[in-house]
Amino acid sequence: MKLIKFILVGFVFGIVLTKSEAVSWYRIYEMFQFQSFHMYGIIMVAVVTGIIGIQIIKKYHLKDYSGTPICIPDKEHSTARYLLGGLIFGLGWALVGSCPGPIFILIGAGFSSVILVLLGALIGTFLYGVLKDKLPH
Question: Which of 34, 103, 109, 118 has the fewest CB atoms within 10 Å around its CB?
Fold first, then answer.
């Protein structure tokens, strides 16, 4: 029962992404074709919200739900890993028409073909775990 608030936040997240059409393949297609500002606007709002949230966590030394202080280490300066990771992420997003966030939302909405996307994401995560020592970090 302690985790019910996280389940509720997940439902709200799913509703917001669905209502904003962020899970729409067509909206994602428009974004990659540079035909619409819609998805770029959603992404910019998410980035700004994240920046504000991280600054609040750092300023007030907030703790997680178990009482452990949240420690966010600074990022290492490395170009290769960000380019490689961004390229793989972007290609997967463009190929599938969905980023990892809405996978469960789309499955819950009845798009059973997205189960293949989920399997691909799980396989990709497993492969990263196997190959992470050989990748640029």
Answer: 34
Task: Write the DSSP string, 54-74.
Answer: HHHHHHHT-B-TTSPBP--PP
The helix (run of H) or strand (run of E) holding residue 126 is helix 114-131
Note the helical H segments in 1-65.
Answer: 4-19, 25-32, 38-60
- CA dihedral over 85, 98, 120, 50, signed as positive or negative: positive
For residue range 49-74, list pLDDT tens digits in order. Answer: 999 999 999 999 999 988 999 999 88
Q: Which amino acid is at 20?
A: S
Q: What is the pLDDT of residue 37?
A: 94
